[in-house]
Structure formats: structure tokens, C-alpha cells
Amino acid sequence: MIIGHILIIDDEIINAETMKDTLEDVNYSVVLAADAAQAKTMVEIQTFDLVMMDVWMPGQDGMSLLEEWMNGGFSTPVVMMSGHAEHQDVVKAIRLGAVDFLKKPLHDILPLVRKILSEQAIQVEKQLSGIDFDLPLKSARNIFEKQYFDHHLQENNHNIAKVAELAGLERTTLYRKLKDLGIDKK
């Protein structure tokens, strides 16, 4: 079972292959690109959960590609990598939108990849549901119920009898619940 789709952009093929082997051993799907041009093509035809990109590459360098992508609304997390990065490179990459900066040669990249992808999954889950799972259960349930009843009231022209039937509630119970949630019945 594949647990994440990762794009590695690195012109140092031995480094890229080593990372790929490490990640594929634990069921990540990995695609390699040797330069920015290949990476742009890959991003157009595939969706990735994480991009790991070298700073120094032939042609367009990683920093300018990062800047181009971030200015274009790229939402996939990007980790920059370099074997000889200066402090200002790290700061610049983070300011441009990279989620992390790794010094090559990489040692034990799995904890970082797992951390980034799990944080991303939590954010996606929160965005999809609109519910903050850090809330107490009653608060989260109230948010869900408000969304549920707002949706069904709109879909059914505010027909209380129909919404009560859909929800499996008596009309009087539904009226009480709508009042408690602060939902206008009209």
C-alpha cells in the first residue's frame, strides 16, 4: 500500500537514487527529476504529497523554481536540500515557502518525511471537515450538526417535516435542536 507520492528533484543521481530506495522500502511512491524542466513536467501530469528539491541544479536552480511555484500558488510542501548551503540560503528558502531545509548528505530522512506528510494529512482532514478536532466533542458535534441542518434546510426549501424525516427526528425535537444551535428555521 502506497503511503505517499514524493517527487525528488536532484541532478546528483546517486543521491536521488539512494533517497528513492530508502523511501520506497517503506512504501512511498517516488518519482525522480534531474532538473527544473523535468520537475515542471512531472508536476503538470502528476499530483505529489511532497517535493524534495536540491538548491543547486543545472539550468534553473531550486531556489528560483521554489519562488516560481510559490508565486503561482503551489500548495505541495517543498523541502529544499543542499550539500553546501549558507545560512542565508536556508532563511531564503523558508521565506519563499519551503517547509524545511536539509543538509546533504541526508541521514535518516524517514522521520522528516513522515512528520511532513502526517501534518499535511491532518490539515487536509481539517479543511475537508471544517471541524477543529482539538475542540471538545460537544463543540465539534455542534459544528457538524449546524452544518448538517443548514445544508438540509437549504436543500429542502426549509421544509421542517422533510428535514426531520431525513434526520430521523420528530419535528418537535428538530425545532428544539435548531433553536439550541441558533439556526433560523425560515
From TrEMBL:
Q: What InterPro entries does its record include?
A: Bact_response_regulator (IPR050595), CheY-like_superfamily (IPR011006), Homeodomain-like_sf (IPR009057), HTH_Fis (IPR002197), Sig_transdc_resp-reg_receiver (IPR001789)
SMART domains in UniProt: REC
User: What keywords sit in the KW lines?
Assistant: DNA-binding, Phosphoprotein
Under PROSITE patterns, the record lists: RESPONSE_REGULATORY
The protein's GO terms of the molecular function aspect are: sequence-specific DNA binding
Q: Alphabetically, which GO biological process terms does the record hold?
A: phosphorelay signal transduction system
Which residues are in the Response regulatory domain?
5-119
Q: Could you tell me what this protein is called?
A: Response regulator containing CheY-like receiver, AAA-type ATPase, and DNA-binding domains
Species whose genome carries this gene: hydrothermal vent metagenome
